[in-house]
Structures are given as C-alpha cells and as structure tokens.
Amino acid sequence: MRLSFWGADHEVTGSCHMLEAAGKKILVDCGMQQGPDEYDNQEIPFAPGEIDYVLVTHAHIDHTGRLPLLYKLGFSGEIHATGATADLCSIMLRDSAHIQEFEAEWKNRKGKRAGRDAVEPLYTMEDAEGVISLFHPWDYGQEVDLCPGIRIRFVDVGHLLGSASIEIWVTEGDVTRKIVFSGDIGNLHQPLINDPQYIAEADYVVMESTYGDRNHEATAIDYAATFAQVIQETFDRGGNVVIPSFAVGRTQELLYFLRHIKANDMVKGYGNFPVYVDSPLANEATNIFRENMYGYFDPEAMELVRQGINPIGFPGLKVSVTSDDSKAINFDDQRKIIISASGMCEAGRIKHHLKHNLWRPECTVVFVGFQAVGTLGRSLIEGARSVKLFGEEINVRARIVRMPGISGHADQAGLLRWLDSFSPKPRKVFVVHGESEICDSFAALIASRNQVETAAPYFGACYDLATGVCLDPGVKRQPQQKPRTRQPSGVFARLVAAVQRLVRISNRYEECANGDIAKFADQVDALCDKWEIKE
Ligand SMILES: [Zn+2]
C-alpha cells in the first residue's frame, strides 16, 4: 500500500493525491493549478485509464478542475463525493468547460489572423458531462465499502457546502491502515454551514496548511449591522451598492445576511429594495444550496427552515439571467443591490455594472473576498482613481468598501485544533496545500508541538504505508515565469493615471497658440526636472 503526491505539494492549488492499495488505484481530488502554481494543467502525470476511483473532498475548482481532463484522457472509473459536492461539481465543471472552450475559441480567432495553428480547449462540455455522470453521491457519516479491502467515510469539514474530510481504511492481508485526508478545513461560525467536525484516529493524516503561518484577526464585527449601514448610507445618497462576489459560497452567504437585514428592517425607507444576483452560475449554485439544506445546513439556518423560512431567499430577490436583463439593471432609478461574478472583477458581467456605477460618487462598491495582485479588484481597493473598462476610461468616484469576509479557511489555531483531535497521535502527518515556506514551517511546528512525525512532500513523492518508509522524495517544481502584463496598483496607479491625463490634455494643444504651447511645455519640463530620478 502506497501513498503518492501529485499536486498541491508546496503549492496551494491543484490538489491531487494517489493511494494504491488492495490492487486498486484511488485518487483523492484532481484539481486545477491556478495562478503562480500553474505548471502543467495540460498533463496528468499518471495513466488516467488505470485509476479505479476518485474521491472528491469538495467542489472548488482547485480540487476538481482536472476531472474532465482525466475523463478525456481515458478515466472511466467511479467518483465518490457527498451529494452536495456532486451537485455543485455538476455546475462548476460545466462552467469550467465553458470557460475552456471560450478561451480556446478566443485564442483561435486571434491566432487565425496571425497565422498560428489552432489550439484545442483543455477539455470540452462533453468531457465535463461525461465525468459528471460518474459521480456517486453519499451522505456525511455513511460508511461505504468501495471494494474488498477499501472502506471510506465523508466527514463534514465546514469549508463549503458538502465539503468533507475523507477517512479511508485500506486492508491488505492482515495489515490495515487508516488514512485521513483533511480537504480544506473550514473556519468557525460561517453562515449556513456547520463548523468542522473532528476525527479521532488515523495512522496517517494528509492535511492542508493554507493559513499554517497565521491567525485571522479576532475582530468580532457584526456583519449584518455593518452591511446594513453601508446599504443605508448609499441609498440615502441616491446610489446603488455593487458587490463583486464569488458565485459559489460567498454569494449565498450574502443572501443569508440580506434576508436577515430585510426581515429585521435594518435598512429604513426603501421598502423591499431589489437585490439582483446577476450571474447564472451563482443562481444555479443558490438552487443547489436550497435543494441540499437537510444534512448540510447548520442549526441556525435549519431553525429558519423549520419555521418555513428560506434562509437564502427574500422578497425583492431578483435573479436576472439573460444578458439583456443584465444590461437593463442599470437603467432605472430605483436604489438597488447588484451582486455579480466574478469576485476579482476580472471577467463577466460585473465589469458592466462597474462601468455604470464606479463614476457615480453616490454609489458604493463592496468587496467581500480576497483580491489577488494584478486584478482590477485589487487596483480598486488600493485606491485607483480611474480604471479602464471596455476601452473606456472610468473615473473612480464611488465609495469603495472592503468588508472583511468570513474566511472559508481555518487559521493556524483552527488547523491545530483539528489535528489535536487525533488520539492516539498519527504515525505521520503529511502537510500539503500551502505556499512552499508555509508547508515547511507548519510541518516543523506540528513536529515539535505535537511530537509527531511530519513530512511536507514534493511533487511525485511516494511513501510505503505499511512501513512508513519514503520510497521517493519527489521533485521541487520551479514556478513558471509567465510573461504577464501587470496592472499598476496602489498610489502608483494614481501616478500612471495622472500622467495619462497629462498626455490627453497635451494632445489637444496641437491647434492652440504657440505662446500657450511654449508655456505649457516649459511647465511640464520644470515638473520633470523636479521629479526625475537621477542615477
Ligand atoms: Zn476549497
């Protein structure tokens, strides 16, 4: 029996681990690599046709995004997950295939004009639908015998609807080992979903370490009250509230708070103001949340359900789907909230809503999630004075608010709490799914704190689970140096915008009087002399 590591090893994305036991090959997750961790999404580093089972911890794309590729390359085994995870995967993998097809088509349109060969999408809708048909849904806590010698169980880990740690018992002859894969460990007190459940025993633990080096700020903000105040102030000024949000998870949390705000009349004077959710994926996800309340929602949300109240629905909730509906949202005077994908403002309909609302000082843009460096969302929270949308320069005059969202990830204290529940101690803890230094430092921390053997494996590392011996140390992958066009950010973005403004102004002087041109030129020269950095 062997365990090997094929993704999210000294990296945060691309989760993929393989267990070989009882004559079977079992994958745990098959995620897409994203951002700086992207190495080789095009390839699967083993023969997909030889995999018997895939177990999925949760539906996020960095844990599931290469499943359609696995299928395309010959996988035809069974996929096991919780019911809610299976349902969420059915929309998220289709959405991912749509993006792959769209991007390939776009590249091909450009490539054709430049005489380049056509590129193939990473996978197609057909591949996504094929792999979706292989899912077997289970409840939390159900023991499932996959085949003689392999038993599994999904345990709620409170990260996303349906998210799970997976317990796996494998038996070969008279040797039985239990391996627990943590999946992404959730934070405490998230709306709608339960807190992480703890597991008592394991021989081996494979655990994530996203926040292995830090704790969340202990600010006990009253989320609903803060949110209500922002809405009230914006409506009183005559503006709209625009919220770039992630379609799955974060949007449903917002709906939960908005229901509470409306039910308790926390925004006064605007009746049942409309809340538009302008993202087809977000609306499909909301339906899946609604269909999977029992067994997945936390006690507070279930109490509402028992009273006949939909925890993520309310009067005034509008789900616009066609792109004409989407455009129409900005052409009436009513105060409104617009929730739209994508979370980092890089794509989708949110750009249209920003174009119509960013220049209006009475409006507010609320950020509820992490904004990666180089994204439009990051520029806005760092104070960009103007941004370019659809080739048009848009002044940023709306109020920009950053609402510290409730993180979906446990912090260092949460990770340690989860690990501390194992008694007796595991034989070994493998630390994965964290930035490279964090994997190492968290492994070192738990080795000394918990007096347990640890390893932070590299890509391709392999261990014998009967003896615990390392058979292959794996290789350290070097991050790809991708040429990227970086957006200026922070105050530097202001400087770039100011210089662009100067150029625009000077262009209009061509037809003006020579005296004015000379005066202008002298002043610009003087300014340059003042600020030029002399080497
Ligand atoms: Zn996740």
Descriptors for this entry?
Metallo-beta-lactamase, Chain A, binds zinc ion, 3 domains, 8-stranded mixed sheet, 15 helices, about 525 residues, alpha/beta
Describe the structure.
This protein is an alpha/beta fold and 535 residues long. Helix content is 33%, strand content 19%. It is built from 15 helices and 23 strands. It has helices at residues 61-64, 67-72, 83-113, 125-132, 223-237, 250-263, 280-291, 299-306, 323-328, 350-357, 376-381, 412-420, 436-450, 490-507, 514-531; strands at 2-5, 17-21, 24-28, 53-55, 78-82, 135-138, 143-147, 150-156, 164-172, 175-181, 204-208, 241-244, 275-278, 317-318, 337-340, 364-367, 386-389, 392-395, 399-402, 428-432, 453-455, 462-464, 470-472. An eight-stranded mixed beta sheet has the order 6-5-4-3-2-1-22-23. α3 runs antiparallel to α7 (280-291). The longest helix is centred in the first third of the chain and has 31 residues, at 83-113. The radius of gyration is 26 Å and the shape is globular. Zinc ion (ZN) is lined by residues 58, 60, 159-160, 184. Residues 58, 60, 159-160, 184 line the site of zinc ion (ZN).
